[in-house]
Protein backbone atom coordinates (compact mmCIF):
# COMPACT_ATOMS: atom_id res chain seq x y z
CA UNK A 1 0.00 0.00 0.00
CA UNK A 2 2.55 2.56 1.10
CA UNK A 3 4.99 1.26 -1.51
CA UNK A 4 2.61 1.83 -4.39
CA UNK A 5 1.52 5.19 -2.99
CA UNK A 6 5.16 6.18 -2.89
CA UNK A 7 5.87 5.18 -6.45
CA UNK A 8 2.75 6.99 -7.68
CA UNK A 9 3.98 10.14 -6.05
CA UNK A 10 7.41 9.69 -7.56
CA UNK A 11 5.78 9.41 -10.98
CA UNK A 12 3.68 12.49 -10.30
CA UNK A 13 6.76 14.47 -9.42
CA UNK A 14 8.70 13.29 -12.43
CA UNK A 15 6.08 14.09 -15.02
CA UNK A 16 4.73 17.27 -13.41
CA UNK A 17 3.64 19.70 -16.10
CA UNK A 18 3.75 22.72 -13.83
CA UNK A 19 6.00 23.38 -10.87
CA UNK A 20 5.31 25.85 -8.09
CA UNK A 21 8.51 26.83 -6.32
CA UNK A 22 8.11 28.49 -2.93
CA UNK A 23 11.17 30.30 -1.63
CA UNK A 24 10.99 30.14 2.17
CA UNK A 25 14.10 32.32 2.52
CA UNK A 26 12.31 35.06 0.56
CA UNK A 27 9.27 34.64 2.80
CA UNK A 28 11.42 35.05 5.90
CA UNK A 29 13.32 37.99 4.39
CA UNK A 30 9.99 39.70 3.69
CA UNK A 31 8.83 39.11 7.27
CA UNK A 32 12.11 40.53 8.61
CA UNK A 33 11.79 43.57 6.35
CA UNK A 34 8.26 44.27 7.62
CA UNK A 35 9.25 43.56 11.22
CA UNK A 36 12.12 46.05 10.98
CA UNK A 37 9.82 48.71 9.53
CA UNK A 38 7.22 48.27 12.23
CA UNK A 39 9.64 47.92 15.17
CA UNK A 40 9.30 48.26 18.08
CA UNK A 41 5.82 46.93 17.34
CA UNK A 42 5.62 43.15 17.11
CA UNK A 43 5.23 41.69 13.61
CA UNK A 44 2.72 38.86 13.25
CA UNK A 45 1.67 37.03 10.08
CA UNK A 46 -1.65 36.43 8.35
CA UNK A 47 -1.54 32.80 7.19
CA UNK A 48 -5.20 32.35 6.26
CA UNK A 49 -6.24 30.63 3.04
CA UNK A 50 -3.33 28.16 3.21
CA UNK A 51 -0.87 31.00 3.78
CA UNK A 52 -2.20 32.83 0.71
CA UNK A 53 -1.87 29.69 -1.36
CA UNK A 54 1.79 28.94 -0.68
CA UNK A 55 1.13 26.29 1.97
CA UNK A 56 0.47 26.77 5.67
CA UNK A 57 2.51 23.71 6.71
CA UNK A 58 5.69 25.19 5.22
CA UNK A 59 5.04 28.89 5.87
CA UNK A 60 4.17 28.74 9.56
CA UNK A 61 7.28 26.89 10.82
CA UNK A 62 9.56 29.03 8.64
CA UNK A 63 8.04 32.23 10.05
CA UNK A 64 8.15 30.85 13.58
CA UNK A 65 11.85 30.03 13.24
CA UNK A 66 12.41 33.63 12.14
CA UNK A 67 10.78 34.80 15.37
CA UNK A 68 7.13 35.31 14.43
CA UNK A 69 4.98 34.65 17.51
CA UNK A 70 1.49 35.68 16.41
CA UNK A 71 -0.46 34.16 13.52
CA UNK A 72 -3.85 35.03 12.06
CA UNK A 73 -6.10 32.55 10.26
CA UNK A 74 -9.70 32.93 9.08
CA UNK A 75 -11.11 29.54 10.12
CA UNK A 76 -10.52 27.39 13.18
CA UNK A 77 -9.66 24.51 10.84
CA UNK A 78 -6.77 26.60 9.49
CA UNK A 79 -5.78 27.36 13.05
CA UNK A 80 -5.58 23.66 13.85
CA UNK A 81 -3.34 23.13 10.83
CA UNK A 82 -1.13 26.05 11.87
CA UNK A 83 -0.91 24.66 15.43
CA UNK A 84 0.06 21.22 14.16
CA UNK A 85 2.68 22.76 11.88
CA UNK A 86 4.17 24.71 14.79
CA UNK A 87 4.63 21.59 16.87
CA UNK A 88 6.38 21.61 20.19
CA UNK A 89 8.71 24.46 19.20
CA UNK A 90 5.77 26.81 18.77
CA UNK A 91 4.09 26.37 22.13
CA UNK A 92 4.53 30.06 22.90
CA UNK A 93 3.00 31.20 19.62
CA UNK A 94 -0.52 32.64 19.46
CA UNK A 95 -2.98 31.80 16.70
CA UNK A 96 -5.98 34.11 16.31
CA UNK A 97 -9.06 32.99 14.38
CA UNK A 98 -10.29 36.09 12.56
CA UNK A 99 -13.77 35.03 11.50
CA UNK A 100 -15.16 35.17 15.01
CA UNK A 101 -16.43 32.64 17.53
CA UNK A 102 -19.53 30.72 16.48
CA UNK A 103 -20.08 27.94 18.99
CA UNK A 104 -20.92 24.60 17.47
CA UNK A 105 -20.34 21.03 18.55
CA UNK A 106 -16.55 21.24 18.73
CA UNK A 107 -16.58 24.97 19.44
CA UNK A 108 -14.70 26.10 22.46
CA UNK A 109 -13.21 22.72 23.33
CA UNK A 110 -11.39 22.62 20.02
CA UNK A 111 -10.04 26.14 20.49
CA UNK A 112 -8.81 25.08 23.88
CA UNK A 113 -7.34 21.77 22.79
CA UNK A 114 -5.44 23.33 19.89
CA UNK A 115 -4.43 26.55 21.56
CA UNK A 116 -6.48 28.88 19.35
CA UNK A 117 -7.50 32.37 20.42
CA UNK A 118 -10.77 33.83 19.19
CA UNK A 119 -11.26 37.20 17.52
CA UNK A 120 -14.57 38.43 18.90
CA UNK A 121 -16.53 40.73 16.66
CA UNK A 122 -19.93 41.15 18.30
CA UNK A 123 -21.65 41.21 21.68
CA UNK A 124 -23.08 37.75 20.93
CA UNK A 125 -19.66 36.30 20.22
CA UNK A 126 -18.21 37.93 23.32
CA UNK A 127 -20.98 36.54 25.50
CA UNK A 128 -20.77 33.01 24.06
CA UNK A 129 -16.97 32.97 24.42
CA UNK A 130 -17.09 34.24 28.01
CA UNK A 131 -19.74 31.69 28.98
CA UNK A 132 -17.69 28.88 27.44
CA UNK A 133 -14.61 30.05 29.33
CA UNK A 134 -16.53 30.21 32.59
CA UNK A 135 -18.01 26.75 32.02
CA UNK A 136 -14.57 25.31 31.27
CA UNK A 137 -13.50 25.85 34.86
CA UNK A 138 -9.80 26.00 35.59
CA UNK A 139 -6.67 25.25 33.66
CA UNK A 140 -5.16 27.15 30.77
CA UNK A 141 -7.94 28.88 28.85
CA UNK A 142 -7.65 30.38 25.39
CA UNK A 143 -7.64 34.17 25.17
CA UNK A 144 -9.25 36.48 22.65
CA UNK A 145 -8.88 39.65 20.63
CA UNK A 146 -11.62 42.25 20.46
CA UNK A 147 -12.36 43.31 16.89
CA UNK A 148 -13.56 46.91 16.51
CA UNK A 149 -15.12 48.01 13.22
CA UNK A 150 -13.71 51.41 12.26
CA UNK A 151 -15.13 51.53 8.76
CA UNK A 152 -15.12 48.18 6.99
CA UNK A 153 -18.69 47.36 8.04
CA UNK A 154 -17.85 43.70 7.90
CA UNK A 155 -16.85 42.24 11.27
CA UNK A 156 -16.34 43.88 14.63
CA UNK A 157 -17.96 45.92 17.38
CA UNK A 158 -19.20 49.39 16.47
CA UNK A 159 -16.78 51.92 17.98
CA UNK A 160 -19.35 53.32 20.38
CA UNK A 161 -20.22 49.84 21.69
CA UNK A 162 -16.57 48.90 22.12
CA UNK A 163 -15.92 52.07 24.14
CA UNK A 164 -18.45 51.10 26.77
CA UNK A 165 -17.52 47.47 27.38
CA UNK A 166 -16.76 46.96 31.06
CA UNK A 167 -13.53 45.67 32.52
CA UNK A 168 -15.51 42.67 33.78
CA UNK A 169 -16.73 41.86 30.27
CA UNK A 170 -13.24 42.23 28.82
CA UNK A 171 -11.68 40.22 31.63
CA UNK A 172 -14.06 37.28 31.49
CA UNK A 173 -13.47 36.97 27.73
CA UNK A 174 -9.70 36.93 28.29
CA UNK A 175 -9.09 39.87 25.96
CA UNK A 176 -5.37 40.32 25.23
CA UNK A 177 -5.59 42.42 22.05
CA UNK A 178 -7.79 45.11 20.52
CA UNK A 179 -7.73 45.23 16.74
CA UNK A 180 -9.34 46.84 13.73
CA UNK A 181 -8.79 46.52 9.99
CA UNK A 182 -7.98 49.18 7.40
CA UNK A 183 -10.25 49.66 4.39
CA UNK A 184 -7.86 51.28 1.87
CA UNK A 185 -4.36 51.14 3.30
CA UNK A 186 -2.85 50.46 -0.13
CA UNK A 187 -4.02 53.93 -1.16
CA UNK A 188 -2.13 56.21 1.22
CA UNK A 189 -3.98 59.25 -0.16
CA UNK A 190 -7.42 57.91 0.77
CA UNK A 191 -8.77 60.07 3.62
CA UNK A 192 -10.43 57.03 5.17
CA UNK A 193 -7.02 55.99 6.56
CA UNK A 194 -6.90 59.03 8.85
CA UNK A 195 -10.55 58.58 9.79
CA UNK A 196 -9.98 54.94 10.79
CA UNK A 197 -6.81 55.77 12.71
CA UNK A 198 -8.75 58.43 14.65
CA UNK A 199 -11.74 56.12 15.20
CA UNK A 200 -9.45 53.39 16.55
CA UNK A 201 -7.88 55.90 18.97
CA UNK A 202 -11.34 57.04 19.99
CA UNK A 203 -12.45 53.45 20.63
CA UNK A 204 -9.43 52.98 22.89
CA UNK A 205 -9.83 56.10 25.05
CA UNK A 206 -11.67 54.40 27.89
CA UNK A 207 -11.80 50.75 29.03
CA UNK A 208 -9.73 49.50 26.10
CA UNK A 209 -6.88 51.89 26.78
CA UNK A 210 -4.78 49.39 28.71
CA UNK A 211 -4.90 46.65 26.06
CA UNK A 212 -2.29 45.99 23.34
CA UNK A 213 -3.60 47.15 19.97
CA UNK A 214 -3.25 46.23 16.30
CA UNK A 215 -4.47 48.04 13.18
CA UNK A 216 -2.03 47.64 10.26
CA UNK A 217 -2.11 45.01 7.51
CA UNK A 218 0.70 44.86 4.90
CA UNK A 219 -0.06 48.23 3.34
CA UNK A 220 -0.72 49.78 6.74
CA UNK A 221 2.96 49.17 7.56
CA UNK A 222 3.81 51.63 4.76
CA UNK A 223 1.39 54.41 5.69
CA UNK A 224 3.18 57.66 6.61
CA UNK A 225 1.09 57.85 9.81
CA UNK A 226 2.76 54.60 11.00
CA UNK A 227 -0.36 53.19 12.73
CA UNK A 228 1.58 50.25 14.15
CA UNK A 229 0.49 50.25 17.81
CA UNK A 230 1.75 47.04 19.45
CA UNK A 231 1.35 44.51 16.64
CA UNK A 232 1.13 44.55 12.84
CA UNK A 233 -0.61 41.83 10.79
CA UNK A 234 0.89 41.57 7.30
CA UNK A 235 -0.27 38.92 4.85
CA UNK A 236 0.04 39.78 1.16
CA UNK A 237 3.44 41.50 1.40
CA UNK A 238 4.94 38.46 3.14
CA UNK A 239 4.13 36.43 0.04
CA UNK A 240 5.66 38.95 -2.36
CA UNK A 241 2.69 41.20 -3.11
CA UNK A 242 3.32 44.92 -3.45
CA UNK A 243 2.00 46.76 -0.38
CA UNK A 244 2.62 50.11 -2.12
CA UNK A 245 0.82 49.88 -5.49
CA UNK A 246 2.11 52.41 -8.01
CA UNK A 247 5.53 52.43 -6.37
CA UNK A 248 8.32 49.85 -6.73
CA UNK A 249 7.62 46.62 -4.86
CA UNK A 250 9.84 46.47 -1.76
CA UNK A 251 9.14 42.76 -1.28
CA UNK A 252 10.87 39.68 -2.73
CA UNK A 253 8.87 37.26 -4.88
CA UNK A 254 8.10 34.09 -2.92
CA UNK A 255 6.14 31.95 -5.40
CA UNK A 256 7.31 31.02 -8.88
CA UNK A 257 5.04 29.01 -11.15
CA UNK A 258 6.52 27.56 -14.31
CA UNK A 259 4.75 25.30 -16.78
CA UNK A 260 5.80 23.12 -19.65
CA UNK A 261 5.46 23.89 -23.32
CA UNK A 262 3.67 20.86 -24.77
CA UNK A 263 3.76 21.78 -28.45
CA UNK A 264 4.95 24.51 -30.81
CA UNK A 265 3.22 25.19 -34.10
CA UNK A 266 3.31 27.66 -36.97
CA UNK A 267 -0.01 29.06 -38.19
CA UNK A 268 -0.79 31.27 -41.19
CA UNK A 269 -2.30 34.74 -40.97
CA UNK A 270 -6.04 34.40 -40.45
CA UNK A 271 -5.80 31.29 -38.23
CA UNK A 272 -7.61 31.40 -34.91
CA UNK A 273 -6.50 29.95 -31.58
CA UNK A 274 -8.46 28.27 -28.81
CA UNK A 275 -12.17 27.85 -28.02
CA UNK A 276 -14.58 30.01 -29.98
CA UNK A 277 -11.72 31.39 -32.08
CA UNK A 278 -11.42 34.52 -29.98
CA UNK A 279 -7.98 35.43 -31.38
CA UNK A 280 -6.99 35.65 -35.02
CA UNK A 281 -3.39 35.75 -36.27
CA UNK A 282 -2.72 38.97 -38.19
CA UNK A 283 0.53 37.55 -39.56
CA UNK A 284 2.12 34.12 -39.85
CA UNK A 285 2.64 33.20 -36.20
CA UNK A 286 4.43 30.76 -33.96
CA UNK A 287 2.27 29.50 -31.08
CA UNK A 288 3.28 27.61 -27.94
CA UNK A 289 0.76 25.44 -26.12
CA UNK A 290 1.40 25.57 -22.38
CA UNK A 291 0.23 23.13 -19.70
CA UNK A 292 -1.47 25.76 -17.60
CA UNK A 293 -5.17 26.54 -17.54
CA UNK A 294 -7.86 27.90 -15.31
CA UNK A 295 -7.81 24.65 -13.32
CA UNK A 296 -4.27 25.66 -12.33
CA UNK A 297 -5.38 29.03 -11.04
CA UNK A 298 -4.89 31.03 -14.22
CA UNK A 299 -7.87 33.41 -14.25
CA UNK A 300 -9.87 33.20 -17.46
CA UNK A 301 -9.83 36.99 -17.37
CA UNK A 302 -6.21 36.70 -18.50
CA UNK A 303 -7.30 35.29 -21.87
CA UNK A 304 -5.71 36.94 -24.90
CA UNK A 305 -8.71 38.61 -26.48
CA UNK A 306 -8.99 42.03 -28.14
CA UNK A 307 -5.35 42.89 -27.49
CA UNK A 308 -5.66 42.36 -23.74
CA UNK A 309 -4.58 39.50 -21.53
CA UNK A 310 -1.80 37.97 -19.52
CA UNK A 311 1.72 36.99 -20.52
CA UNK A 312 4.20 34.23 -19.89
CA UNK A 313 7.95 34.78 -19.83
CA UNK A 314 10.62 32.94 -21.76
CA UNK A 315 14.02 33.82 -20.32
CA UNK A 316 12.53 37.14 -19.26
CA UNK A 317 10.88 37.94 -22.60
CA UNK A 318 7.14 38.51 -22.37
CA UNK A 319 4.96 36.42 -24.68
CA UNK A 320 1.25 37.32 -24.77
CA UNK A 321 -1.44 34.70 -24.29
CA UNK A 322 -3.73 34.37 -27.29
CA UNK A 323 -7.32 33.19 -27.32
CA UNK A 324 -9.36 31.87 -24.46
CA UNK A 325 -7.62 30.13 -21.61
CA UNK A 326 -8.78 26.50 -21.39
CA UNK A 327 -9.14 24.35 -18.31
CA UNK A 328 -5.71 22.73 -18.66
CA UNK A 329 -4.00 24.71 -21.40
CA UNK A 330 -3.20 28.15 -22.63
CA UNK A 331 -1.59 29.36 -25.84
CA UNK A 332 1.16 31.98 -26.11
CA UNK A 333 2.32 33.91 -29.18
CA UNK A 334 6.08 33.35 -29.38
CA UNK A 335 6.58 34.65 -32.93
CA UNK A 336 8.97 37.36 -31.72
CA UNK A 337 11.36 34.93 -30.03
CA UNK A 338 14.59 34.06 -31.85
CA UNK A 339 14.53 30.72 -33.65
CA UNK A 340 15.41 27.94 -31.24
CA UNK A 341 14.72 30.02 -28.14
CA UNK A 342 11.89 27.72 -27.10
CA UNK A 343 11.29 24.01 -27.62
CA UNK A 344 8.59 21.58 -26.58
CA UNK A 345 9.42 20.38 -23.08
CA UNK A 346 10.89 23.72 -22.00
CA UNK A 347 9.13 25.53 -19.21
CA UNK A 348 7.89 29.11 -19.20
CA UNK A 349 7.30 31.41 -16.27
CA UNK A 350 3.76 32.45 -15.39
CA UNK A 351 4.35 33.87 -11.91
CA UNK A 352 7.69 34.79 -10.40
CA UNK A 353 10.58 37.23 -10.77
CA UNK A 354 9.32 38.40 -14.21
CA UNK A 355 5.66 37.52 -13.77
CA UNK A 356 5.10 39.96 -10.92
CA UNK A 357 1.96 38.96 -9.08
CA UNK A 358 0.41 42.43 -9.12
CA UNK A 359 1.15 43.12 -12.79
CA UNK A 360 -0.16 39.70 -13.70
CA UNK A 361 -3.32 40.26 -11.69
CA UNK A 362 -3.94 43.59 -13.42
CA UNK A 363 -3.69 41.87 -16.80
CA UNK A 364 -6.21 39.28 -15.62
CA UNK A 365 -8.67 41.84 -14.26
CA UNK A 366 -8.17 40.72 -10.66
CA UNK A 367 -5.93 41.43 -7.65
CA UNK A 368 -2.69 39.74 -6.65
CA UNK A 369 -4.33 38.27 -3.56
CA UNK A 370 -6.69 36.24 -5.71
CA UNK A 371 -3.86 35.01 -7.95
CA UNK A 372 -1.99 33.68 -4.89
CA UNK A 373 -4.88 32.02 -3.07
CA UNK A 374 -5.99 30.28 -6.27
CA UNK A 375 -2.60 28.74 -7.01
CA UNK A 376 -3.59 25.31 -8.24
CA UNK A 377 -3.36 22.11 -6.28
CA UNK A 378 -2.17 19.77 -9.01
CA UNK A 379 1.22 21.15 -9.86
CA UNK A 380 4.33 19.92 -8.13
CA UNK A 381 5.36 22.04 -5.16
CA UNK A 382 9.04 22.54 -4.48
CA UNK A 383 9.94 24.33 -1.26
CA UNK A 384 13.40 25.85 -1.40
CA UNK A 385 15.44 27.64 1.26
CA UNK A 386 15.55 26.58 4.85
CA UNK A 387 13.49 29.49 6.07
CA UNK A 388 16.36 30.76 8.19
CA UNK A 389 17.21 33.37 5.57
CA UNK A 390 20.92 32.60 5.70
CA UNK A 391 22.34 32.41 2.22
C1 LIG B 1 -6.23 39.27 5.77
C2 LIG B 1 -6.11 40.15 6.93
C3 LIG B 1 -4.88 40.77 7.24
C4 LIG B 1 -3.71 40.73 6.29
O1 LIG B 1 -3.98 41.64 5.25
P1 LIG B 1 -2.95 41.88 4.04
O2 LIG B 1 -3.58 42.99 3.26
O3 LIG B 1 -2.88 40.61 3.29
O4 LIG B 1 -1.65 42.26 4.63
C5 LIG B 1 -4.80 41.48 8.41
N1 LIG B 1 -5.87 41.62 9.23
C6 LIG B 1 -7.07 41.07 8.96
C7 LIG B 1 -8.21 41.28 9.88
C8 LIG B 1 -7.23 40.34 7.79
O5 LIG B 1 -8.43 39.81 7.49
TrEMBL record:
Binding site for substrate: 154, 327
InterPro entries linked: Ala_racemase, Ala_racemase/Decarboxylase_C, Ala_racemase_C, Ala_racemase_N, Ala_racemase_pyridoxalP-BS, PLP-binding_barrel
Residue ranges occupied by any Alanine racemase C-terminal domain in the UniProt entry: 254-384
GO cellular component: cytosol
Catalytic activity: L-alanine = D-alanine
EC number from the UniProt entry: 5.1.1.1
Metabolic or biological pathway: Amino-acid biosynthesis; D-alanine biosynthesis; D-alanine from L-alanine: step 1/1
Necessary cofactors: pyridoxal 5'-phosphate
Entry coiled-coil feature ranges: none
One Pfam family cited in the UniProt record for this chain: Ala_racemase_N
Biological role stated in the UniProt entry: Catalyzes the interconversion of L-alanine and D-alanine. May also act on other amino acids.
HAMAP family documented for this protein: Ala_racemase (MF_01201)
Family indicated by similarity: Belongs to the alanine racemase family.
NCBIfam families: alr
Protein name: Alanine racemase
Naturally occurring in which organism (per UniProt): Lichenibacterium minor
Gene that encodes it: alr
Amino acid sequence: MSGSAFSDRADDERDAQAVLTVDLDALVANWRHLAARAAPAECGAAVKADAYGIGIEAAVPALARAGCLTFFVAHASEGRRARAALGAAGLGARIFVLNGFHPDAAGFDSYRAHGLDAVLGSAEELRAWSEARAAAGGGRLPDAALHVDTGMNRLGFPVEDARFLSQAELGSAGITLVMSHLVSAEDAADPINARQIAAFDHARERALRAYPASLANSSGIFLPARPFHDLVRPGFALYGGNPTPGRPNPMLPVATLRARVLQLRSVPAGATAGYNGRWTADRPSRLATIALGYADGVPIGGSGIDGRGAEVFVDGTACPLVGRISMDLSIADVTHLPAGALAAGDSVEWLGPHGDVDALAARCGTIGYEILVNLGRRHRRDYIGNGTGTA
